[in-house]
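Lesson 9: reading folded outputs for more than one chain in a single document. The general rule is that every protein is listed as its sequence immediately followed by its structure tokens, and records are never interleaved. Here is the first one.
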Amino acid sequence: MTTAEATKTTAPEAGTEQHGLKAHSDGDWANRVPVQTRSERPTSTDVADFAEVTGREAVWKYTPVAKLGALLNGELDGSRIPVTVPAVAGATSEWIARDDARIGRAGVPEERGAAAAWSAFSEAHLVTISGEEHVTAIVRRDALDAAPRAAHTVVEATPHSRGLVILENTGSAQLSENVEIVVGDGAQLTLVSVQQWNDDAIHLSSHYATVGRDASFVHIVVSLGGGIVRLNPSIHLDHEGANGEAFGAYFADAGQHLEHQVYMDHNAPHTRSRVTYKGALQGEGAHTVWIGDVLIRQNANGTDSYEQNRNLVLTPGTRADSIPNLEIETGDIEGAGHASATGRFDDEHLFYLQSRGISEEEARKLVVRGFLLEVINQIGDDATEERLQAAIEAELAESTK
């Protein structure tokens, strides 16, 4: 459905109008019902099907859209972006044309930013994981520049394969992209997206995953760098027995905007999902946004789902928006729930550490380190985990200067 189709209206039948309901002078609002849930959002790969962003839309209202004009309304360079993928057995890397049948299987944009990137790209970068022996593939994007770019990436795990794919983003960039993930039946795939951009970088990224029968998919986001980072994963558990897990860790400094909108779609019986995002904020104007949407469809009986977001505020002048949403269309489920909390240090934790001879400054570092490393340690690649731990140490060192 396109946006244009979504706004079509029909006149009410005679005698069914609500008493006292009259059209206002600002438009025919009486016959237009706003989108209330994630599952009702219009979708399209054509940017022309979406109106220009004002910042008042539900999907954009927490984002500094005034700084995104080049990516939302400008002309994007859709040529190949520079990527480096070290050769490894069991993983292949290639470029495919935009009309290739392997594109468009995992999801479709729900907003203008993603549609603009989809409309502009000329070729997609395809990474394929195959074979039952576990394989790790690292995709490095570190040679972009400040020119507005569009990109499209497809990651596929063939049936019964096992793998880890790490997307490493560093340097300067003004990038809008779509990432599709296709997890075959019985496959086990972990995809990690690491944002360690320079302070001037702007990155809009929409991830779409479809998970096969009895397959398992783990999606991990680590956002530590970039002026504006907006990464929105949508995981669709489309086949019976599918398992989806989404983890996120983020550390926002002064003036930095880090946003993650997570969608977990249960669209088959006996599916399971877990969502855990944890963030820390320090410095004037540091802003994080987490929105978690879970949909349990009518046919998803036996679903087991839980989502949570935790934010640790280290200094005054920060803002953390945290919004969990749960939509359930069937009563035949194993369980579903959500939780959200934002606060300062736990005084009991600090007291416990200080009572054992640890200074208050070091105690605070230990608390933050343990808070975020719960997510970092899910990655499963020692070198990447060590590098990110060092990055977090550097962030904490800045906070004590």
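And here is the second record, again sequence then tokens.
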Amino acid sequence: MSGALLVAGTTSDAGKSVVTAGICRWLARQGVRVAPFKAQNMSNNSMVTADGAEIGRAQVMQAQAAGVEPEAAMNPVLLKPGGDDASQVVVLGRPVAEVTALSYRPMKAALLEQVLASLADLRSRFDVVVCEGAGSPTEINLRADDIANMGLATAAGLPVVVVGDIDRGGVFPALYGTVALMPPADQRLVAGFLVNKFRGDVRLLRPGLDRLTALTGRPTLGVLPWLPGAALDVEDSLGVPTGVSSAGPPHGEEVLRVSVARLPRLSNFTDLDALAAEPGVLVRYATRPEELADADLVVLPGTRATVSDLAWLRATGLAEAVGRRAAEGRPVLGICGGHQMLARTITDDVESRAGTVAGLGLLPADVSFAREKTLGRPSGEALGHPVRGYEIHHGVVTYADGAEPFLDGGRAGAVWGTTWHGALENDGFRRAFLAEVARAAGRRFVPAPDTSFAAVREQRLDALGDLVAEHADTAALWRLLEEGPPDGLPLLPPGGSSGAAR
């Protein structure tokens, strides 16, 4: 078996990533060797593979769902937005160019060849490859040089399942219109639909599903119920919640409150997932100084645009509030770009090309941006516990004397800075760090002694596998994987010449 299919969506955030992960987990449970694939991902939420390649964090999560090691071929093209109209292009895990939306388009023909080669490589080594689309497959202004949706599907002959988000409303016109706007060659690959995020009695939906089938000639292959907490390792910071996490009862006497600066170009925000999974820890995202007032810990997270986001931090008043906290000895943690903001000076002739600007001056350090990106999987020890993480940065932080080393960064009083992403996923270190924060904040908070973040993630991935196994037409999915796109699917106007003619 060397099957593959493409999971497309009517919109961004329709649920393509979690459906892909769910199908991967369902197949892996059947003993199928399965790999995820996303031809082109636009995201600042990325990770480093074991061999030092940078890929989208969603594909790392999907590889975990499949029970395989993530690799560059699973996400051959990654676009990392750094400004209003600029992105870094990462190909097979390595940065190759900075582009605008228009200057990127001439590159895509060559990138399609790389995408197809990566997909063919995975198909030669795995039983099944589950591909995830990007945005909508019916971006008619971009179809001519598409490499991530129907351009990929037509080039590789992939059957396509379209996911619609019913929680947004308008799922029936979205599903119908997605197919109807496609040219005939694309329509012939769309084998069916999945309705996602449904709340209520599915019997109420049945007349609409039957009518959709009558209009399109394509079945609905499942109605997936709303699953709280299903969005793992989201690609876009727009998916980051604006409220607070659900903390549960604290192990000690008090809850620990964490406020995270919601930077405009926030990256690697999954660094905070491990804190949000800890009993008794409330994580919330802040855009105003008053939202830091009662926080026991303030986090400056990663960013794709350190200098620009530092300017935003100052414009909102958050920078001044963070400075007051540090002066009072109240805990502050900076991660990667947030760590760079804590330095005295930042010299950037690479990303922002702003030259030397003043940092927050809360750590005795200076930052200089290197043209070569640092990508790595470091390991070490901190607070008496082993720690493993990953690094993705151009900024190099150099410390003066007087700072205590901390995860390749430093600590001064209650201010910590680290270049490592993923450090908080290490259970022993996370508990020790939270205990330090609680002491500095004067809280009677005691971290739970047995929280396993890896186990929490596995439970969430199992829930996605259950979602597919229990609510999707798995027999139909098997047929698509074994036989490819069905023959004789009707064409819809305007893709067809005379309505739903065969």
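What the second record shows: The first strand starts at residue 3 and ends at 9.
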